[in-house]
Design goal:
The complex is a heterotrimer of chains A (about 280), B (about 500) and C (about 270).
Chain A (H helix, E strand, L loop, with lengths): L1 H29 L1 E2 L9 E2 L3 H8 L1 H31 L7 H9 L6 H12 L5 H9 L11 H16 L1 H12 L3 H10 L3 H12 L1 H17 L2 H7 L10 H11 L3 H26 L2
Antiparallel strand pairs in A: 1-2
Helix pairs in contact in A: 1-14, 3-7, 3-8, 3-11, 5-7, 5-12, 7-12, 8-11, 11-14, 13-14
Chain B lengths: L1 H28 L29 E8 L6 H4 L8 H10 L1 E8 L1 H14 L6 E5 L3 H8 L6 H6 L12 H5 L2 E2 L2 E2 L2 E6 L3 E4 H6 L11 H17 L6 E4 L9 H12 L12 H7 L8 H17 L9 H9 L3 E4 L4 H9 L3 H6 E4 L14 E7 L6 H11 L2 H11 L7 H4 L2 H21 L11 H17 L4 H18 L5
Parallel strand pairs in B: 1-2, 1-3, 8-9
Antiparallel strand pairs in B: 3-11, 4-5, 6-11, 7-9, 7-10
Chain C lengths: L4 H28 L4 H4 L13 H9 L1 H33 L3 H13 L4 H14 L6 H26 L2 H9 L4 H12 L1 H17 L2 H6 L7 H13 L2 H23 L13
The chains are: A mainly alpha (about 280), B alpha/beta (about 500), C mainly alpha (about 270).
Chain lengths: ~280, ~500, ~270
Amino acid sequence: MREEYRLLLPAVAVLALLVAVPTFYLFYTSFLNWFLRDPEGPTFGGLNNYIRLIQSGDFRISLVVTLIFSAASVSISLLIGLGLALLFSEKLRGRNIMRTLLVMPIVLPPVVVGFTWKFILSSEVGIIGAYFMRLIGLGDISLLGDPTLALASVIMADIWGKMPLPFLIFLAGIAAIPPIYYESAMIDGASRWHTFKSITLPHLHKPLIVALILRTIDAFNSFDVIFVMTKGGPGMATHTLPMLGWKVGFYYFDIGMASAIGVLLLLLVIAVSMPLVRRISR
Amino acid sequence: MKLSRRALLGALGGLIGGVAVGAAVGWTAKPEAPARTVTVTGAERTVTQYVTAPPREKAAITIIAFAQGFAWPELFGSDGTIETDLLKKFEEREAVDIAIEWGDEWAVREKVASDVTARVGKYDIVLVGSDGAVQAYGYAGYLEPLDEYFTKYPQEYFDQNDVYKSFLDANRIEGTLYALPYYSFGPGVIYRRDLFERYDAELPKDNWSTDDLEVALEKISEGLKRDGLTDTYALTMRAGPGEEPTLDLAGFIYAYAGYPAWFEGGAIWPSEIKQNKAKPILDSSDFEAGFRAFTDWVKRFGPPGASTHTWVDMMNLYAQGKAAVLMPSAINGYAALGITQDENVKRYTKFMLTPFGPGRKRINSYWTFSLGINKFSKNKEAAWRVLTYLTGRDSMEAFAERTMWPNVTMRSVLYSYPLIKKYGIEEIELNERSVVENPAIYFPYISELDLFMDKVGTMASDVVAGSKTVENALSELQKWATDLMSSRGYYT
Amino acid sequence: MVRTTPLKFFMYLLASIIVTLSVFPIAWIVIASFKTMHQVFQMPPQLVFEPTFDNYRRLLFGGQLMNAFFNSLVISILTVTVSLVLGIPTAYSLSVLKNRVGRNVSFWILSVRMAPAFAVIIPYFILMYYLKLIDTIWAVIVTYLTFAIPFQTWLLKITFEELPRELEEAALIDGATKSSALFRIILPNAAPMIASASILTFVLAWNEFLMAFILTSRDARTVPVLITALSGTHKLDWPIMAAITTVSMIPAFAFITFVQRYLIKGLTMGAVK
């Protein structure tokens, strides 16, 4: 056993060092009343920030938006990623180049993803938002100006940009399945569906959970794409928790409250991923 | 087979590792590159002169700003990264060493906030806008008061008397000056004369009212529909969420109520509010009048995506010839004029003062792109010299010459030959009047202004998008404002 | 497996449609990089137009691109390398340790990655400022490791766990040491996941904006920071942004193409008879 613990040490030490200060700072400032607008510095506020936060309508709205956004983005990107991974694990001609192309969206910085889709979906100059919509007679509808459609649009942009993550993870997962299983299945004359269900899927159990966790973390923390596309609007239709945290911290200059939002967001993500982690740690 | 795959993997690992190590070594061994790349602009050449006297001790000044490439390209190049000869001359003359950092508006805020939180004082000169930043930083004590610098450190760049008073007022907190303006604007209406004439709408005139404008917009809007021009709109205004529209929206409120109808009695200074215990009146009929007019007009006459539009979208729409009227931040119309390739836009764009609202004040909109000195700066005197140069006459002239926008701070530059030649003396005079006749301060100048700008703007965006009614939005705003002001200790 | 021809055809069709949908916005960006600001906003959008190389000219002669590119490249490569070097032994030991310590450490490592960016920028800024690392690539790399190490560790951990124990045992019986077993048997079999995880880590490091922006000023600026600085809010210079993006896609494209061949089915030895 000793050797295993020794192998753990370097990474754990590095991480602990890097993470200690910010974590402590985050939790500590969340208990302070600290407005950069006030010439007097921070004062101790206890649970003040948390209480104000829970009571604030903005927080509730942002929470709901975050949950809807994350649920949709994560589930759909996972499904598409899985489907595509299965498809492109087969011997199709030109598969390599297709796979590289499919992975490209994640190469773009989220800011660029946001700008690209904002541009494409714009009701004034977008090839889809203006040209195509007018073509099919829906010129009055603004994809980014209507609250529901705006939310759908940012979700779609996020899916487009992040789908390669589950895609690559599943590709690797499928590649790791020893071909002997498939060979014996073929000998036994099993159907495609049966093979998928009893061989492929069980082997993808862990990659699925990990992809789910990673995507969930990303989705809950997603900021750049939404900020650039709609700035949280129209109104607060696409206003997520990270946007709230950013706004409260860097715009309202309420550092204490921003830290509180950060802590709550962190706890939320941990709460959602903990049961998932348990499932694969059995 | 086994061997070749392992070898490949090993090679890959070696390659990555080798590149990484090589890069790391190369990077650390790299000779300390000078912080700025020095290049030669145009046909001028730099000549090194050897002088016998030792060089003066240069004070290092760091600036943080947005609008890279747009602000001071005569100093920093069209991409904001070079050190032009002009800049070098200035540095020599004043014994300073200037480094400038750029970002977009939001990014700059983040950096400044980090700087303030850590009390680092990394940036000597900070870009502030008069729509929240000046107030936030000013009240927080982050900016250096500048009034006495004029007398203590006289300079020849920035002439207070040449500058329009309102632009300086916009940067005063309870009388103290905290920043100097670079380019700035007052309210105005930019419109397409040809579209007005085509649809038989009455042309904007000096003492017109908001009713007149509304009638004109209706005519144009209907006319456009009749002609089947579905991608052209009578009005382009910005109603994106956050603080985006609030500058303009506040101007509407001011015009319709006749005073800044945000707090009881029209109080706008913290001392006033505290003394008179002036509560917010955001759900009053005075505030509602302007708010309703603004959102109404955007909904009726503006493009469908307006609820997410920023000034960039507003400007682009006009530049493509797809709007008849752009208001009240007319500078965006001049910007559009600068980038447009549409012949009609170029030929028929005109400027007029904003109409009078029912409160007998003109619709307002003011903003200055100003610079302040960081209180924690270690080189304040040197920073002052840089500051006055950046906002001084030479810079203003260069700005006017390059952009051809009449949105300058100084009278002598507004009435300069290039601008008069482009717009004609009448339009220049109108621009001057818009700055002289309208007050720069038409909304509360309190430390929490940022929050109000953000909240009110987001509500407007909601109303324009159709998710809230004006009544609901305003009653929510009222509750929020009352809670905020109470919690900030104004009424105790 | 025997496949009927209509099914194969259908799969090709589906694949082509999806790839087109995925790629079209990227093609759009590349096209935009050859347009002027005016052309780019034309409605209806022009597919046939007179291209301009102005944007690329500005980029290449501006001088900033090379620097930003170099920074991004070094940062991304180092992030991947260091996180692999630290992650592999960690993943290995966690895949073996089935006790409470193992589970808790695993979860803790993952939770490190969960911190929201906006909440930790300021403490990192202060930390780096006092370590005098502001505006160096090291500050950026170090903060990136906080998400790269958990990422690599977890993906590799589950991969190691899935490998048949017999592989390792067979090697040990043959007289190999534990570490040589790791290198000669386990790692090659985990190649697909190492490839995927490396691609993703490289890409995520390449793209990260907020930390890179706050922690750098001029010298250590990365490509995403440059993109927003140049195209910014002021003019929304879409063509320039498109040009930088196109150029910045090239290294990632190359990296992915090269590493991709490890994502082949049946790479596993299947040495279990």
